[in-house]
Amino acid sequence: MANLNYIIKPRAAQKIFSFYQNVAKKYRHTYDKADLKRNVHDAVFSIYQIEQTLLRRNPTITRWNGYYMANTDKWYFAYTFGSTVTIVDACHAQNMHEE
Q: Using CB atoms within 10 A as the burial measure, which of 49, 66, 86, 91 is most buried?
C-alpha cells in the first residue's frame, strides 16, 4: 500500500492523553509517568495502522456518523480518508457509548 499521510486533530490527541491522565489519578500508587507515557505512545502510534492493517468500519455511535471508524483492541478512532487520513476523534473501548 502507498505511504499515507496522517493528521491527528487536537480533539483526538486530547482524548487519549486525558484518558491516561485519569488512569494515573485513580491509580496513583501503582501507575506512574512511565506507564502514562508508554500508553499514550502506544495509542497514538496505533493510529498509523488505520487504512494499513486496521479495517475501515461504519461508526457504531451516532456522533461519528459521516466518518469512518477503526479500532484497535483498546481504542476506537473516527476519521476521514482522502489524500490523507485525518483522525478527528478517539474513544477508549471502555467509553464507547452514546453520550
A: 91
pLDDT digits (tens, 9 = 90+) for 56-83: 999 989 999 999 999 998 999 999 998 8
How far apart are alpha carbons 91 and 75 in whole angstroms? 6
Please enumerate in sequence order all residues whose Cβ is within 8 A of that of 23, keeping only pairs 6 or more positions apart, or say none. 31, 36, 39
Strands 5-8, 68-71: pairing kind: unpaired
User: SS3 of 99, please?
Assistant: coil
Parallel, antiparallel or unpaired: strands 5-8 and 84-92: parallel
Q: Give the separation between CA 56 and CA 66, rounded to whole angstroms.
A: 13
Give the β-pairing of 84-92 and 75-81: antiparallel
Burial label, 90 (beta-carbon count in 10 A; 0-12, 13-18, 19+): buried
